[in-house]
Design goal:
The complex is a heterodimer. By secondary structure, chain A is an all-alpha fold. Chain A contains 3 helices and no strands. The N and C termini of chain A lie far apart (48 Å). The longest helix of chain B has 32 residues. The chains are: A mainly alpha, B mainly alpha. At the A-B interface, α1, α2 and α3 of A face α6, α7 and α10 of B.
Chain lengths: 98, 515
């Protein structure tokens, strides 16, 4: 039931997340876009779990825990770089030449 | 010893190494909560960490000695019980132990009173072990995240350093981005095959099942490869690696370049070998990744002037060599893959340990020319660095040579002659940046008196260098024992019975027409 549309929405969310990471320059926005990608995967898991059994729904809980851990560490790192640079704009974070 | 994973006692036995390390990590957390103020506390946590790693290695040895295997049964296996897991576990534990030994002096010298450093190393090692042993995409994902989150923090552990913060920041953003790709890939593969168990996926694909999920499976596999490509720093997903390696504290860089990369490779190897042997498409993708990584990594490394960035790009190039073994497939490639992984870990750790001794308050500035005349002042350190460079280059008599030789043999026997040729040619290019280091040390005079006075390697640092150099020379002359171990380890990675492997000869032809 509604498998196709749900997967379609999740694909659109994922594409939006990828586009956001590639195009935006603000660290916080990029981080939000990464979370969008993870949540797109969650939506896909839940949608697929309708026909494939509960495993997909259980994965979602794992992913939520992982995303929370990543958010805790990630925001701390963004804070650390703000203390050094007074900005979280990617254009101004260029001490290391890549 | 056959373990019936449906009984909880046998399941606990099968997970013994992971459980031992988890228990130790909790003990370490408690120790750090009480003792985190003085240098003595830092040393204490370091030694407890070494004890943890040692006892875990003993647990792995116990399972290996009893040739533990999982009983075939209806229970879905989440963690493999095979020699591939045991061998990679030893590799990860060894890399972690050498990193900890290296860190004692480094942390004191840089005045980093951070005992949690060791806790994070233990957590990261636990994640690596789950990645090397994961028999299920979800376990591999969780192991990867446990590893990554710990290493993001390790990269920025020096809060005073702006470049450390920037390295952690870049590593975090790119790492989380890659995790997103990996997870969505897992979701699509799950949708196409209805399972996340590696062998179950392989059986589903082999049976031609999947309910018309061909496109979904292909996209899922492509996303998985992108995710892994970021983690192993394969070109074109390598852009983060030099910056992150450059900005992180040197022992952490050594850990990232050896252990973290080895873990990602082990997981990639198992996933491709067990879940997707029947899908021909990945051979072609990995083929292109390998060629691009070898060529670009080596060419950019030529242009580097600081030792640390040169080593960073050299580790990108070595990812390309390892990808050749992956492209050769599990059948001829696994023994070469494991052997090279061990050799690569030893030479990378040795080189970074010596760099940590030379540099002071940021090894980022050590130019290759700064090593001039090192051989007269510190002949043993110069000799050790020379051995590491020659091994990275693949000079006969070192483990790096034997490793490259076996990768070449595997690639040619799998019909990947072009890959083998590119490997040889790019190795020749790599002489252009490894040999200048040796020439500077042995053929140039000291630029001014006391140029190397600040260079100091503590007793434990010497131990790390001695272990890695002795290992490189020993395995370069007598590789048999390690090769046997790699062979038995490689047998572990194989598809479920009844899955036809994609013919490698066909893929080679594919690759030729594609060009």
């Amino acid at each position: 039931m509604l498998l196709g549309p749900s997967l379609g929405v999740s694909a659109v969310l994922f594409a939006l997340g990828v586009a956001g990471v590639l195009l935006r320059r603000n660290a916080i926005v990029i981080f939000m876009c990464v979370e969008l990608m993870l949540n797109a995967a969650n939506l896909a898991f839940v949608a697929l779990a309708q026909s494939l059994g509960v495993a997909g729904q259980i994965f979602v809980f794992f992913v939520m825990a992982v995303a929370a851990a990543e958010a805790a560490v990630g925001l701390a790192i963004i804070l650390a770089i703000y203390r050094h640079k007074q900005t979280v704009d990617l254009q101004n974070i260029n001490l290391l030449k890549g | 010893m056959i373990l019936d994973l449906s009984s909880s006692r046998d399941l606990l036995l099968a997970l013994l190494p992971e459980l031992v390390l988890t228990g130790w990590s909790l003990v370490l957390l408690l120790v750090v909560a009480w003792r985190h103020r003085t240098v003595g506390d830092l040393r204490l946590t370091g030694w407890v960490t070494l004890a943890a790693l040692g006892s875990t290695a003993a647990a792995v040895w116990w399972l290996w000695w009893h040739t533990a295997r999982a009983a075939p049964g209806p229970v879905p296996v989440m963690v493999a019980v095979d020699d591939f897991r045991f061998v990679t576990d030893w590799l990860f534990l060894g890399a972690a132990a050498l990193t900890v030994l290296l860190s004692f002096d480094y942390l004191e010298r840089e005045e980093l009173l951070v005992p949690e450093y060791h806790v994070l190393i233990v957590f990261a090692t636990l994640g690596m072990m789950l990645m090397g042993g994961g028999e299920d995409l979800m376990v591999i994902f969780l192991g990867l995240e446990l590893l990554s989150v710990a290493v993001y923090v390790l990269a920025g552990i020096n809060r005073e350093s702006a470049s450390g913060a920037e390295a952690a920041f870049k590593y975090f953003l790119l790492g989380a981005f890659a995790s997103g790709f990996l997870l969505y890939g897992i979701a699509l593969v799950y949708g196409a095959t209805g399972t996340t168990g590696l062998r179950a996926i392989g059986a589903q694909i082999g049976a031609g099942g999947g309910g018309g999920g061909g496109t979904m499976l292909a996209i899922g596999l492509a996303l998985l490869l992108i995710g892994f490509g970021f983690k192993i720093a394969a070109v074109p997903f390598h852009t983060w690696a030099p910056d992150v390696y450059d900005g992180s504290p040197t022992p952490v860089t050594a850990y990232m370049a050896s252990g973290v990369k080895a873990a990602a490779f082990a997981a990639l190897f198992r996933v491709l070998g067990e879940a997707f042997p029947a899908v021909a498409a990945w051979h072609q993708i990995v083929w292109w990744l390998a060629v691009a990584t070898m060529v670009v990594g080596n060419l950019i490394a030529l242009a580097q002037r600081t030792v640390k960035r040169m080593l960073a790009y050299s580790s990108v190039a070595h990812a390309g060599y390892l990808l050749v073994a992956v492209a050769a497939g599990p059948e001829p490639g696994s023994a070469a893959f494991l052997f090279y992984l061990v050799a690569y870990t030893l030479m990378t750790l040795g080189a970074f340990a010596l760099l940590a001794a030379k540099g002071r308050h940021g090894e980022r500035d050590v130019l290759i020319d700064d090593l001039a005349g090192l051989a007269t002042r510190h002949p043993w350190l110069a000799f050790a660095l020379a051995v590491c460079m020659l091994s990275l280059l693949g000079f006969p008599g070192t483990a790096g040579f034997i490793g490259k030789w076996y990768i070449l043999a595997a690639a040619t026997s799998a019909g990947q002659g072009v890959l083998a040729t590119v490997l040889v040619l790019t190795s020749v290019i790599s002489a252009g940046y490894y040999l200048p280091v040796i020439m500077a040390m042995y053929m140039k005079p000291e630029p001014f008196a006391e140029a190397h006075v600040g260079m100091r390697l503590g007793r434990l640092g010497y131990a790390v260098v001695m272990v890695s150099v002795a290992g490189l020379l020993f395995f370069g002359v007598r590789p048999n024992r390690l090769l046997d171990l790699a062979h038995t380890g490689g047998v572990g990675v194989q598809p479920a019975p009844g899955v036809p492997p994609a013919a490698p000869a066909v893929t080679a032809a594919h690759a030729r027409t594609a060009r």
